[in-house]
Amino acid sequence: MSAGAPQTRHLRCDALLQRSGWMSPAYVVLDGQGLIIDVSAAAAPAASSWEDVPGYVIPGFQNAHSHAFQYLMAGLAEHRPNNASGDDFWAWRDAMYRCALQLRPEQMQAVATMAYAEMVRHGYTAVAEFHYLHHDEHGVPYSDPAEMSRRLMAAAEAAGIHLTLLPVLYQKGGFTTAPSPKQRRFIHGSVDDYLDLLVLAERAAGHAQDVQVGRGIHSLRAVAAAEILQVLGQPFNGPAHIHVAEQIGEVEQCLKATGMRPVDWLLTHLPLDQRFSLIHATHMDQLEIKNLAASNATVVVAPSTEANLGDGLFSLREYWQLGGRFAIGSDSQVTLSPIEELRWLDYGQRLRSKKRQILTAQPGDEYGTEVFTSAWTRGRLAMGQSADDFFSIGTAFDAVVLDPEHPAIYGKSANSRLSALIYAGSSDCLLGTIRRGHWLAKHGRHLGQAAIRREYQQAIDTIRSQAQS
Ligand SMILES: [Zn+2]
To answer: How far is the CA of 15 from the centre of ligand 1 (A)?
Structure first.
C-alpha cells in the first residue's frame, strides 16, 4: 500500500440492525472508501484495533423526494392569503413561485447545504433531489445550463449526504395552458434541451463517489404525453421520478384532458417497474391501487408536506395489502425529520381506519420495524441503489446511531427499539449520523454546522435586502 493511501478500518458496534434482527455486538470491516468488506458477530483475530461505535446502529434514512430551495419558505406560508378562494395547495404554489424567483446560484447552494446538513443531523444519509429551478431570474439558461445542478452537488458534498439528482423536465402551466411567467426558471423549450442538461449533469457528477443522476418529469399537467414518452418510454438506466395525483383538482383536469386518471395514464403508457418512483399518488381509485401495487414501482409519500398542503391521505393500507411498497420524502421541507414523517404516515392511516395495525401481517410483528424497513428499502431503490440487505457487503457504511441511554430507548427490548424511536422518540434519541464510516453529525450537531449556518444566514440576509430594495 502506498504512503497516505486510505486504510482498512475496523468498527465494533454495540448492536447493528440486520433484516433478521439485531447483531450484538457486531464487527464491521471497511475499506478505505468506507465500503463494507465484512460484517460479523465475531472479531477478526487479525485486526489490531477496533474503533467503538457506542450505540444501536441502524441504516441511514433515505429521503426520496426533496426540493432543497423550498427550505427557504418553510414556515412562511402559514397565514391566510388575500384571495377569494382562501388557502390551499394552489395558493401555496403561488408563494413557492415567488420564493423560487429570488434565488441566485450562490444562494441556492447555501440554502441547499443548510437543508442537507439538517437532513443529515436528523438521520437522513441520502437524498433524491427533484430539481427544476434550472434557469436565471429572467428564465434564461445560465452559460453553463447545469449551473444549478452543480450548486446542488456542491451542497450535498459540503453536507456529506449522498445525492441522487433528478433534473426535471417542466414545460407547461397546466394540461392545456402555457407556463406562466412565474414558472420561467423551470421551463425547457424542447426535450433535446432537457436531454442536453442530463448529459451535462452526468458529466458534472463525473466520478463523484456520492452523486448519481436520474430522470424527472414534473407531472402529467406540466409535460405533454409525447414528451413524457420521449424521456421515459425509451430504454434508460437509473431512477425516474414523477409527481402524480397529489390534488383532486389535478385528477379532474387529467380526466378532462386525457380521458384517464393520472396513475392509470402512467400504468397504461409507461413500463412502470422498480426504477420508477411516483411521488404522492394520493388520489387513486381501487383499480389504480391494485395495478400500481402490482407494477413494483415505488410510491414516495411525503406525509408532512401532504398534511401541510391539505392534499389528502394516501391509501397506504389498501396499497400495502396488495403488495405495494413506499418510501418517504421531505418534499417542501416543513420537517426534515424522518421519524416525524414515518409517525405522520402511520398515524394518518390509524385515524382514518380506526385500527392500529396498518402494515403488519403476523401477531408480534413490530409496527416500527415494518415502516422503517419499507421506507429504507424503497428509498434505496428510489435513489437508484441496491436494497438487498441492511449493511450489505460492498455498500457504503451509512448509519444512524441510537443512544442506548436516552429514556425513550433505554430498557426497551431489542425488537421494540425502532418502534420506540418512531412512535415515542425524536431526533434527540440519535447519538449521530455516519457516512462512509465517518461521523457527520454528533449529539445533535452537524460537524460542519458553524460554517454552513454562517453562509446560510448571509444568503438569507441578502435575499431579504434584495426583496426590500
Ligand atoms: Zn415535490
So the answer is: 36
Domain 9-59+391-449: top CATH class: mainly beta
Nearby residues for ligand 1 (ion, Cβ within 5 Å): 331
Q: Are strands 36-40 and 61-66 parallel, antiparallel or unpaired?
A: unpaired
Tell which residue, 202, 113, 118, 126, has the closest CA to residue 382: 126
Q: From the CA of 127, how far away is ligand 1's center (Å)?
A: 13
pLDDT score recorded for residue 2: 46
> What's the length of the chain?
469
Q: How far is CA 25 from CA 16, 42, 349, 429, in A?
A: 7, 8, 36, 20
Q: Which residues contact 234 (CB under 8 A, 6 or more apart)?
A: none
Other CB atoms closer than 10 Å to residue 431's CB: what's the count?
Answer: 22
- In eight-state DSSP terms, residue 414 is G
Q: Active-site residue 280, yes or no?
A: yes
Task: Output the pLDDT for position 47.
Answer: 65
| Residue linked to cell 414534473 | 218
Query: Given 122, 131, 162, 280, which residue is catalytic?
Result: 280
| Architecture in CATH for domain 61-383 | Alpha-Beta Barrel (3.20)
Domain ranges of the chain: 9-59+391-449, 61-383
Catalytic site includes residue 461: no
Q: What spacing in Å lies between the alpha carbon of 250 and ligand 1's midpoint?
A: 14
> pLDDT below 50 — which residues of the chain?
1-3
**Cα 199 → chain centroid:** 23
